[in-house]
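Render this sequence as a predicted structure.
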Amino acid sequence: MKIGENMKKLMLVGIGAAALTEEKLENVIHDLTRKGEFTEEEGKKAFEELRGKLKESKGDLRKMVENVTEKVISGMNLVRREELEALEKRIAALEASDIDSRKED
């Protein structure tokens, strides 16, 4: 499952980068407010607006990683867990049916 691990790492790196960006953003807004470039209220408003955009970016990154993961998995013709579980149930049902039919013979 090396591909899955790599995809998780990629997503965590992206989210980590966004978190660092939010922290840096907060520091920059704080510095600008301290220097008088923003009032306290303007600084809070600017931070909230930009933080909202960062959250959107995180969501977009997550969607992008999910799409790439989906394409990689489908390109490798791997069976999904749900598909495997469904096949296991069908096999178990067929085996039970076969055992019952043999008992009748």
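Summary. The radius of gyration is 26 Å. The CA atoms of residues 65 and 71 lie 10 Å apart.
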